[in-house]
Amino acid sequence: MNQVVIPGLGPTRRRSWFGDLRPHDAIEQLVQEIRALYVEDEVPWVVGYSGGKDSTLVLLLTWLAVAGLPPEKRRKMVYVISTDTLVENPVVSAWVGGHLEALRAAAAQQQLPFEVHRLTPEVKDSFWVCLIGRGYAAPRPKFRWCTERMKIKPSNKFIRDVVSQYGQVILLLGTRKAESQARARTMARYEQGRVRDKLSPNGGLPNSLVYTPIEDLTNDDVWISLMLHSTLPWGRDAKELLALYQGASPDAECPLVVDSSTPSCGDSRFGCWTCTMVSADKSMTAMVNNDEGNDWLRPLLKLRDALDIDDDRHLREFTRASGRLHIHHGRLVHGLYTQQARADWLRQLLTVQQAARQKAPEEFREIELISWAELEEIRRIWVLDKHEIEDLVPEIWEETTGASWPGRRDFNEAFAIPKDSLDILAEVCDGDTRLYEGMRNLLDIEKRFRTMGRRAGLYGELEKCVKRFMFDTEEEALAYVLEQQGPVPDQDEQLSLLDGFPL
Questions:
Q1: In angstroms, rounded to a whole number, what is the distance separating the alpha carbons of residues 432 and 176?
Q2: 127, 345 in Cβ contact below 8 A?
Q3: Do the bridges between strand 10-13 and strand 3-6 make them parallel or antiparallel, or are there none, so unpaired?
Q4: Lowest mean pLDDT across 169-178, 224-233, 407-416, 484-493
């Protein structure tokens, strides 16, 4: 059995990709392949870098390939892009940030054509603005609103900008067939449509080709390759990455494989700490359990678990945002989070942020789980779009942080309804929350339109508001719909895909 010994990891059996070659020789062949593709044309490259083992290896191999060329042949730009959703695991986010800074410095020092970009979603598309601001329910398989807004849109915008400048682009990705059977089938399908050797068309982005240099490597191949080049050319150590994966593994073990029954250190999945698309955040849980220094992450795990509840109907409106009512399987399809639920999520988030800052190591003491720009956008949505003129964001900020609200206090002064008037309205409504919210919204709509030269749209806004609040209870609304429309036909299965979507 061919073996390679990595210090501290023990003997490891070589797997498929190396074949009969020594690891160094096999890696050098791959570097030569990348180098040949680089000099073949003038099309710029975009390398997707997440900080994980696969993208790190792709970046390493690309760096070695370009650095090995004479200066006159390093003629086209290599853009390194890293998408930060703003809710990444804080430890991993700091790790990636450190590498990005090191990459910028090393590229300048070594005079390599690498340009580093950290991409983030627009404020209006951020996780907390969508969930707390607009009231989108926590992501689910049939309502996965997060990936498109937070990851795909920022990277696609950057790639389209490069295409508009150069006419074409080649994307280098760290996807591998060994990741899963589904990934292998997808990659095989794209492989059949290749327009050039090693390059597949990107169906979602015109004039872009995809190159997956490590597509045939296994987890073990990846780790062996990284450990053989553990001192990365931009000044960081790949063994730190191994330690990061080890800390995120439930058993704190990170073998490269000693036999076919030994799991590889490749199953840790780093991502958004708020993710409710998985049953549990196993990597962050392992980090907390394996290292007392990460105990400050525990409140984040608790908030993530609070978001991930099986039935959140009691937290959501029984009407859609438009006021429409829909039935599925004999029940109303619920819409956005209620005002109280959204206020509670903000209160919990800011409380967790305070707790994290107090317990975290020095480098995380100023951590922002939610940015100031997001807080301002949430405030704008609540007051202007949702007519929640109580303007609760400053109040919740002061309650949870113990500090004065640092922004403008009178956000909507021109159209504000005095607080004592709202208190009188609440008293008249005698604890009926829906009646209070409906009347408050009608008053705000009327007051805003009063100052307009043309009041086009006033009746439409008033009608939508009345429809939304015309029923006191969910039972009353359901009975009305059943009486007016009868049960929803069985073929109307498409509504199951809209459960939670803010129509």
A1: 56
A2: no
A3: antiparallel
A4: 484-493
